[in-house]
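A common beginner's mistake is to predict each chain separately and then try to dock the pieces by hand. The better habit, illustrated here, is to supply every component at once so that their relative placement is modeled jointly.
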Amino acid sequence: MRKTGSFLLAVSMVLTAGGTTALAAGGNADLAQGNQSIDVEARYESSAVTPEVYSVDVSWGAMQFTYSESGTLDWDPESHTYSDNTDAGWTAEGNTVAVTNHSNTQVTASFVYDSLEDFAEISGSFDKMSFALPSAENRELDDGELKDQATLLLEGALDEKNTEFAKIGAITVTIE
Amino acid sequence: MEEQKAKRNITRMLLILFIVAAAAAIAVIVWALYFRKPEVVLSPDYAPREEEPYAEDIPDDSGEKLTSPEGGGSVSITYSRNVSVDLGERRAALHFANPGKSNQDMVVQIVIRDNVIVQSGTLKPGKQVDSLELLDGAEEQLTEGTYEGGFNVLYYDPESGEKAVVNTEIPIQITVSK
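With all components supplied together, the output reads:
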């Protein structure tokens, strides 16, 4: 009876010394060697959001246009009229608008020219009405794909009294 | 008999008053819906002298300028396309920045169906805003809900204050709450 009691006491001491933690749920214990291991589990869960950040550079040239006429108006004595041998047209300096996308999403740039009321007879159009630029995500700052430009062309005649540069219209760049 | 006649007259008078009041109310509603001209806010041709009071410095802005074509201009704009308007506080919460690399001052307007409801003061390069006040009367034009609107961004020469030949429009979504 005394032997049995001693044996039970010894077993309970070993169990205590071996680590009660190892006997917790989910664990196992190598009681013989006194080591223990606990399973550690992991999983990935993403709650991070990536908000769209728009960042766009727009640059434009001087936007100075000159309407010039060349050639001659030749007098015809037979009909008492001039025959028109002149040529007229627009030349431009700095007539491009460039857009660069630094956003983490694609953008589309579109271009509209609006004449001022006093110069309604002059219309303008762009060689590219719009273009799309890809997201800058995973691209270098100077990636050529992120930049494009449109060129403004004018049509119509400017009155001869306008010999100095004057504002005749404005450009709206829409970024979508 | 006389009493009944008097009661009838009073009822008739009340009825007439009610009809007149109802007709006046209908007329006001019809005018407001179809004939009232929206208040026009003209975009300034020169930058406002007053800088935007809610503008703050952009943190960690390098200020390194963009290369500008000769005689032209270069700007950079950073923004979020979601704007919320609190009618109670008469404020719009937004994110709009004129980074230091721009070489133009800016004014930003918030526009809903051709009505300007917000117009900032001048935003110098290196400044941003997260809050702007509604223009006077704008809160009367809005009710709770979501609107499709736009930023209208105007650029100004920092030296002369003259408006640039180019401006930018950006579609945004505006959530209005009380």
